[in-house]
C-alpha cells in the first residue's frame, strides 16, 4: 500500500514515520515534507496548498490513502478535491474544517450544541470591539483572530488596556492579515489545559490518549502564545470520568449538531479544554492532530496506524478493535529558532540530531527544517520536536532533555519545564 502525507511540520513527520511502520505500507510520500521526512520517507516537491497537483500525484502513483496534516489545506478544501477525484483521503471536508477555520463559526456550533465554553462576542469592526471592552468590568479577556493564524492569533489580556491593544494589533495593524478581519472576544478561563483528540468517521467517535500542550513561550507559562512548545502524554488530569464527560457533553453533541447542519465530520476532532472549577470547558476546536501533541501521542500508539486511518476514512471505526497503547509516558520538547514567536533568525546549520536519535527511546521529529547545500538548517519558528519515552514522567523528561542537549544551532532554545504540570495532578 502507498500513502501520501500532506504537510511539512512535526505532525506530518510523526504521521509519516508511524505509517511507515505498518507492515501493509510499502511506500510513504510526504508533500512537501522537511529534512527529517526526507530521511524517513520520500519527499515530493508539491506545496501542501496545491490541491489539484496533489490529487493528480495521488492518482498517478495509485496512492491508497492520503492523510492531510495541517489545517490550512483542510480549510482550503483539499479533501473535497481528493473526493471529487475518487481518492481515499483522511480529513474533514471544507465545510467541516470551518470548525477550526472560523472561531466565530466554532463558537456558534458550540452554542447550538450546548457545549460548555467561555462567554463570547463576535465583532467585525474594531470600534465596536473596543466599545464593548470599555463598557465591561475590569476582567481578564481573550481576544482571538477569527481565521487561521498558525497558533498565534490568540491574545490573553489581563486588563482593558491589553485587550484594546490586542484588538488594534489584530484589526487595525493587520497582524494576522485577513484572519483578523473578525475577532472573537471571550472571558478568560482559568484552570489546567488538556488536549483531547478523537477520531471521527461521521458516526463513531474514538478518543486517543490525552495530552497536555504548553502554549506559552517561556517557563511557568509566561510570555506570548505560540503554536506549542512541548507536550506530554498521558495527561493525569484526563481521568476516565473526565473522558466520559467529554465524550458525552462535548464531542457527541458537536458531531451531532454538525450533522444536523448538513455537515458530516470525518477526521480528527481536537478539543482544547480548560478544566475549570465548573467543569471542562472548550477553549477551541481544531480539525487535525495537534502539534506537538501528535508527537507525544503517536509515539505511544501500538495499533497499526494505517488500519486506524483507513477505518476512519471509510466510515468503519465501529469495526476497529480497541486501540493499543504503550503504558509509558512520552514527552515532546520543541526546540525553536531565536526570536520565535516573533521575527526569527533562520538558515543556521543544525548539529547533533543523529546523536540524539541514537539515544534509547528517543526520536527527533523535524518541523521547520530543510537541506541547504548539503546541511540541515532551521527554516521556521518551531524547528524540532525532541520526543522520548520513559517509564514515568520523570524518566521521560530526563531522556528528552538529554537528547535536547545533544542538539545545537545558533540561537536554539526551548522551555525547560515541559511536563512539570503533571506533578500537580491529584
From TrEMBL:
Superkingdom classification of source: Bacteria
Domain ATP-grasp: 107-314
GO annotation, biological process: 'de novo' IMP biosynthetic process; purine nucleobase biosynthetic process
InterPro entries: ATP-grasp, ATP_grasp_subdomain_1, PreATP-grasp_dom_sf, PRibGlycinamid_synth_ATP-grasp, PRibGlycinamide_synth, PRibGlycinamide_synth_C-dom, PRibGlycinamide_synth_C_sf, PRibGlycinamide_synth_CS
Catalytic activity: 5-phospho-beta-D-ribosylamine + glycine + ATP = N(1)-(5-phospho-beta-D-ribosyl)glycinamide + ADP + phosphate + H(+)
Gene Ontology MF, one: metal ion binding
Pathway(s) where this gene product acts: Purine metabolism; IMP biosynthesis via de novo pathway; N(1)-(5-phospho-D-ribosyl)glycinamide from 5-phospho-alpha-D-ribose 1-diphosphate: step 2/2
Enzyme Commission (EC) number: 6.3.4.13
Segments forming a coiled coil: none
Keywords assigned by UniProt, alphabetized: ATP-binding, Ligase, Manganese, Metal-binding, Nucleotide-binding, Purine biosynthesis
Cofactor(s) for this UniProt protein: Mn(2+); Mg(2+)
Gene3D superfamilies, A to Z: 3.40.50.20, ATP-grasp fold, A domain, ATP-grasp fold, B domain, Phosphoribosylglycinamide synthetase, C-terminal domain
Family: Belongs to the GARS family.
UniProt-listed HAMAP family: GARS (MF_00138)
NCBIfam families noted in UniProt: purD
PANTHER family referenced in this protein's UniProt entry, alphabetically: PHOSPHORIBOSYLAMINE--GLYCINE LIGASE, PHOSPHORIBOSYLAMINE--GLYCINE LIGASE, CHLOROPLASTIC
Name this protein carries in UniProt: Phosphoribosylamine--glycine ligase
Organism of origin: Planctomicrobium piriforme
Amino acid at each position: 500500500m502507498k500513502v501520501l502525507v500532506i504537510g511539512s511540520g512535526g505532525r506530518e513527520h510523526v504521521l509519516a514515520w508511524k505509517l511507515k511502520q505498518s507492515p501493509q505500507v510499502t511506500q510513504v510520500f510526504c508533500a512537501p515534507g522537511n529534512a527529517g521526512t526526507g530521511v524517513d520517507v520520500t519527499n515530493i516537491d508539491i506545496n501542501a496548498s496545491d490541491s489539484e497537483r496533489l490529487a493528480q500525484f495521488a492518482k498517478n502513483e495509485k496512492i491508497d490513502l492520503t492523510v492531510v496534516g495541517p489545517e490550512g489545506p483542510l480549510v482550503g478544501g483539499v479533501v473535497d478535491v481528493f473526493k471529487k477525484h475518487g481518492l481515499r483521503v483522511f480529513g474533514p471536508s471544507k465545510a467541516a474544517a470551518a470548525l477550526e477555520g472560523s472561531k466565530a463559526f466554532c463558537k456558534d456550533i458550540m452554542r447550538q450544541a450546548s457545549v460548555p465554553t467561555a462567554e463570547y462576542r463576535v465583532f467585525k469592526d474594531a470600534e465596536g470591539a473596543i466599545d464593548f471592552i470599555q463598557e465591561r468590568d475590569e476582567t481578564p479577556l481573550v481576544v482571538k483572530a477569527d481565521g487561521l493564524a498558525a497558533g498565534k492569533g490568540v491574545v490573553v489580556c489581563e486588563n482593558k488596556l491589553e485587550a484594546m491593544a490586542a484588538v488594534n494589533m489584530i484589526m487595525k495593524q493587520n497582524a494576522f492579515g485577513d484572519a483578523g478581519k473578525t475577532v472573537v472576544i471571550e472571558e478568560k478561563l482559568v484552570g489546567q489545559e488538556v488536549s483531547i483528540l478523537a477520531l471521527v468517521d461521521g458516526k463513531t467517535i474514538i478518543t486517543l490518549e490525552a495530552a497536555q500542550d504548553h502554549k506559552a513561550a517561556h517557563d511557568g507559562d509566561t510570555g506570548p502564545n505560540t503554536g506549542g512548545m512541548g507536550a506530554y502524554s498521558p495527561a493525569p488530569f484526563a481521568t476516565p470520568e473526565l473522558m466520559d464527560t467529554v465524550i458525552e457533553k462535548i464531542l457527541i453533541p458537536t458531531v451531532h449538531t454538525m450533522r444536523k447542519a448538513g455537515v458530516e465530520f470525518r477526521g480528527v476532532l481536537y478539543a482544547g479544554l480548560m478544566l475549570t472549577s465548573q467543569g471542562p470547558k472548550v477553549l477551541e476546536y481544531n480539525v487535525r492532530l495537534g502539534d506537538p501533541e501528535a508527537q507525544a501521542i503517536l509515539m505511544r500508539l501500538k495499533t497499526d496506524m494505517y488500519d486506524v486511518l483507513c477505518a476512519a476514512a471509510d466510515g468503519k471505526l465501529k469495526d476497529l478493535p480497541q486501540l493499543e497503547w504503550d503504558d509509558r509516558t512520552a514527552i515532546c520538547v520543541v526546540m525553536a529558532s531565536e526570536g520565535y514567536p516573533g521575527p526569527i533568525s533562520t538558515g543556521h546549520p543544525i548539529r547533533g540530531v543523529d546523536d540524539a536519535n541514537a539515544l534509547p527511546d528517543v526520536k527527533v521529529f523535524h518541523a521547520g527544517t530543510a537541506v541547504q547545500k548539503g546541511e540541515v538548517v532551521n527554516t521556521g519558528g518551531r524547528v524540532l520536536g525532541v520526543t522520548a519515552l520513559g517509564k514515568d514522567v520523570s524518566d521521560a523528561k530526563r531522556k528528552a532533555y538529554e537528547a535536547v542537549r545533544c542538539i545545537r544551532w545558533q540561537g536554539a532554545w526551548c522551555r525547560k519545564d515541559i511536563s512539570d504540570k503533571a506533578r500537580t495532578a491529584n
